[in-house]
Amino acid sequence: MFKKILLIGALGQIGSELLAELRKIYGAENVIAADKKTNPPEKIVNAGPFENIDICHKDSLVAIVKKYNIDCILNMAAILSATGEQRPKLAWNVNMNGFINVLDVAVEYKMKQVLVPSSIAVFGPETPKNAPQETILKPTTMYGITKVAGELLGNYCVKKFGLDVRGLRFPGIISNETLPGGGTTDYAVAIYYEAVKNKKYTCFVKEDTRLPMMYMPDCLKATIDLLQADFSKLKHHCDFNVGAMSFTVKELADSIKKHIPEFHVTYEPDYRQQIADTWPDSVDDSAARQEWGWKPDFNLEAMTADMLKVIGEKHKQGLI
Predict the structure, then answer these.
(1) Model's pTM, two decimal places?
(2) CATH second-level architecture of 174-213+245-316?
(3) Beta bridge mates, 130
(4) Which residues, given as ranges, of the chain have pLDDT below 70?
């Protein structure tokens, strides 16, 4: 299907695990990892091509596209919600100007496809708590603003240039491999690590905060399923709701206590609580299910069991 895939943001939380999955499918030499970070782990460098890139500089992107004859770009580079509120201009520059560079190059070099994730951050306080596929998009964060604009811009390129641009609105992503960086839902990852290491955790949102979440294996599955979906069957393009599970922090903590009874959580809400309060409790992902067969594999209990098993092994080995 694709000859050469460029994965931008390959050292991030999602990118680092997506890279391995893509290379299993398409071959290590056919998936080029790219990231702004200049010190990639040896396992990344030794496993296949790696390039340093800053998508805010179009020339560096063009050079890589020409070097490898890239025909598909997955753009996972982004400044996330919490960091974006601290550095809003940086978030706009990376999330919007960087994405515009990707789209410009994709049109110019006649790419087969561009995939870029969106987020539940596109929603705002006026969105229904079970967010419909078609709904009000009035976010209150710079990250959310850039994601709404990115969805619209991607859909515009589909209609204007015939470019195949796809995207899905991720909920909070929970991983046992790579720690997140700068997201409002980071607590849902940190809580597992602290439960294993210290048997206690101080959470930066309230215990009754309920948000949509997804385990990393389902995140990878959703990304690859959409990447490989039949374009002719897609009525939507850059804005698919994708759901897996929704739970409060207390429900998450209780699921951990079933395995670690002595685990204790305290709550000290900070500015991220205000962000979380503007997001929906759940999403209606019927469009994704109908148009490309989306179906998650993990619920809260299955995820907790797997997370604690993997993190527990790492702790025993002194890796965390």
Answers:
(1) 0.93
(2) Alpha-Beta Complex (3.90)
(3) 282
(4) 180
